[in-house]
Structures are given as structure tokens and as C-alpha cells.
Write a structure and sequence with these properties.
359 residues; alpha/beta; Ribosomal Protein S5, domain 2; Rossmann fold; four-stranded mixed β-sheet; four-stranded parallel β-sheet; 22% strand; binds adenosine-5'-triphosphate; binds magnesium ion; Ribsml_uS5_D2-typ_fold_subgr; MCM_dom
């Protein structure tokens, strides 16, 4: 028997549809996943087998082939556990024909059959709204996905709940978007800063005008302190901007269950040992870098000269274009990166006093 479920893959911050085809045919018991799966997707076999058995559902002793289409797109992460498991159950006729057609499925399965949250739920929900599909996710992702208007997001705690929902036995209630947008701790106040009138004015002008800023001063003069107060001076993000920022943070798996839209401009201050991929994005499992996590907010590079020359050079493109394009062998990823750069440095590695003495 063949069953087809729908899921998605992330390319940069955009989600694209992935069709999960599950074929169960007679033969020696085997379980293969094809369609460019990475290690985490291949390991789905073990999780799916255990989750189905521990949910008290039948696991076929037959030849199972799972195909993730389109076959030339790399599939990463554990989010295909849920569609594969439900596809397997549908292939055994535990679900009515067509039950999987109208729902986008994504979730990692625990061995006991509970559904764990995944990264990129907001991006998936956006795709579902374009494709006019419902979304079925782990409970931990549901409120986040419900931020997208016009999509029915069903939160499922376990594989069994998902099965009952799709077969119409016990339909789940759609999740609602959290009422309060997250706003984290209150931003630091510029009132804590004593004196430094010029530096403060420079910061205010830079933030108001969208300029980048370099703070140069002797140790302990308050550069770090000043830069930390930058996000408090920026206005709240509009809904469209907040959605953009939330998508990036969701793709990076940084949004939490209760957090709603990210309304406060982000503030990122990576350490100077940050890797190129950490700063710009990409890596073997592609993730948005610090420049994209700071999109619509502030990227603060403290101790600026300590960053590697290469890292600083890679900042040129995002600073000019407002986005990062990472070309890989199989795909080219685009991450928005329109941030304000604030950098801080001492006049020389020994501090201004030493310079003075040496002169
Ligand atoms: N203008 C100021 N008003 C109030 N407190 C200040 C001021 N400048 C410095 N401080 C105090 O000194 C501490 C150290 O300042 P800060 O870390 O911002 O200095 P810095 O310029 O970043 O130094 P470094 O070059 O060593 O990184 C602050 O946490 C704050 O407590
Ligand atoms: Mg400092």
C-alpha cells in the first residue's frame, strides 16, 4: 500500500512543500528512507519504529520505503518523524483514504510517541497559508504557528492524538495565537549612563537615522554599557517587520512555546571568537547567522579589532545589500540581514594610558 503525507523543508527562511511517500510492500522486513535525507532524517527510522510500537499501534513487518520528494532537495532535521509515522499508519489503512491530503505535518517523535517541537514552525505555517493547508504540529510549536492568520493549527501531544484527529475520531481544537507578544525583559535605560554626552548623542543620532556607529574609547569609559542600551531607543517593530524577524528566529529554532511575535528590535552581541558561519549564516546544517538574527535590530561587535579579518570582511555584503546569500552545491539560501552595526574598540590593545606613556 502507498500513502502520501505532506511536510515541508526550509530553504533559508522560506519553507517549501515536501511530499512524504510511504510504500509498504511484501518482502523481507526493511525500512529505507530515500530523497537526500541527512543523518537526523535517517535516524527517523528508529524513532518512528519505537514511537509506533510504544503508542500501541501496529508496525508492519514488511518492506518499507519512504521517499521524500523533491528528491534533489536536501532534507534536514527530525521534523519528518511525524509525517513518516502517519504515512506508515495510513499505508496500513489505519487512516481513511485522503485523510492526510489537506494537512501539513511536522514534528519530532519521542520514543514513547509524544510529539516534540521543531524549528521553523512559523515558516511552515506561512507556507500552509499559501497552499491552503491545515497544520498539525507538536503542542510546543502550535501557538507560534498560530501567529500566521488564516491557518488552522492543530496541536498534537502524541502520535495517537494526531491519528485520532486525522481519522476524525477526536478532532483537536485549533491553537490560538498568544495574546501577549513576547517582550522579554525590559530594555536597559540610558538614564543609567552618567555624563558621556557626546557618545550618547552619537548613539541617538545613529539609531534615529539608521547609521552604523563605531565607539572608540579607553577601557571602562562605558562603551559596552552604552551599546547595551541601544535596543531601548529603537521603536517597536511593525507587524510586518515583527513577522519577518520571528520567521528568522523560528528558522533558527530560537522561539519558545509561549513567545509570540517578536516585537522588540533584536539585539545580538556575538563574541569575537564567532565562526564565519555563526556570524553570516550557513554551516553544514544551515542556520541564520548573527547578522540575520539581528535583522531589524542591532548587531553589537564589542572589542571590534579582536574579530578575525575574514569575519569583518564578510560583513560587507550584508551591510550593503541587507541580506546574505549563501551558495551551496545544491541550493542557494537567502537570509535577510538589515541590521544596524555598533562596534566598540579601545584605541590600542594596551589602552589609551599606555599609548600616552609610550609617546
Ligand atoms: N558613563 C558611565 N556612567 C555610569 N557607569 C559607567 C560609565 N562608564 C562606565 N561605567 C561603569 O563601568 C563599567 C564598565 O564600563 P564598560 O564595560 O561599558 O566599559 P567599556 O568602555 O566597554 O570598557 P572596555 O574597553 O574595557 O570594554 C560599567 O558596567 C559601569 O558600571
Ligand atoms: Mg567593553
Amino acid at each position: 500500500m502507498l500513502a502520501t503525507a505532506r511536510s515541508a523543508a526550509l530553504i533559508g527562511v522560506d519553507a517549501v512543500l515536501v511530499t512524504v511517500e510511504v510504500d509498504v510492500s511484501p518482502g523481507l522486513p526493511a525500512f529505507n528512507i530515500v530523497g537526500l535525507p541527512d543523518q537526523a532524517v535517517s535516524e527517523a527510522r528508529e524513532r518512528v519504529r519505537a514511537a509506533i510500537r510504544n503508542s500501541g499501534l501496529p508496525f508492519p513487518a514488511a518492506r518499507i520505503t519512504v521517499n521524500l520528494a523533491p528528491a534533489d532537495l536536501r532534507k534536514e532535521g527530525p521534523m519528518y518523524d511525524l509525517p513518516i509515522a502517519l504515512g506508515l499508519l495510513a499505508a496500513q489503512e489505519l487512516l481513511p483514504a485522503g485523510a492526510l491530503g489537506g494537512t501539513l505535518l511536522a514534528g519530532e517523535l519521542a520514543l514513547d510517541g509524544s510529539v516534540r517541537p521543531i524549528g521553523g514552525a512559523v515558516n511552515l505555517a506561512l507556507l500552509a497559508s499559501q497552499e491552503r493547508l491545515d497544520v498539525l504540529l507538536g503542542e510546543g510549536n502550535a501557538s507560534e504557528a498560530a501567529l500566521i492568520d488564516g491557518v488552522k493549527v492543530y496541536p498534537s501531544r502524541t502520535l495517537r492524538e494526531a491519528l485520532h484527529h486525522l481519522s476524525g475520531l477526536a478532532v483537536l481544537t485549533p491553537a490560538e495565537a498568544p495574546e501577549h507578544s513576547d517582550d522579554g525583559p525590559a530594555p536597559l535605560d540610558l538614564a543609567d549612563l552618567k555624563g558621556q554626552g557626546q557618545a550618547r548623542r552619537a548613539l541617538e543620532i545613529a539609531l534615529a537615522g539608521g547609521h552604523n556607529l563605531l565607539l572608540v574609547g579607553s577601557p571602562g569609559s562605558g562603551k559596552t554599557m552604552l551599546a547595551r542600551r541601544a535596543p531601548g531607543l529603537l521603536p517597536q517593530l511593525t507587524r510586518a517587520e515583527a513577522l519577518e524577524v520571528t520567521r528568522i528566529h523560528s528558522a533558527a529554532g530560537l522561539t519558545s512555546q509561549r513567545s509570540g511575535l517578536i516585537r522588540t528590535p533584536p539585539y545580538r552581541s556575538p563574541h569575537h571568537t564567532v565562526s564565519d558561519a555563526g556570524l553570516i549564516g550557513g554551516g553544514s546544517i544551515p542556520r541564520p547567522g548573527e547578522v540575520s538574527l539581528a535583522h531589524r535590530g542591532v548587531l553589537f561587535l564589542d572589542e571590534f579589532p579582536e574579530f578575525s579579518r575574514k569575519a569583518l570582511e564578510t560583513l560587507r555584503q550584508p551591510l550593503e545589500d541587507g541580506e546574505v546569500t549563501i551558495s551551496r552545491a545544491r541550493a542557494s539560501l537567502r537570509y535577510p540581514a538589515r541590521f544596524q552595526l555598533i562596534a566598540a574598540m579601545n584605541p590600542c590593545p594596551y589602552g589609551s594610558q599606555s599609548v600616552f606613556k609610550a609617546a
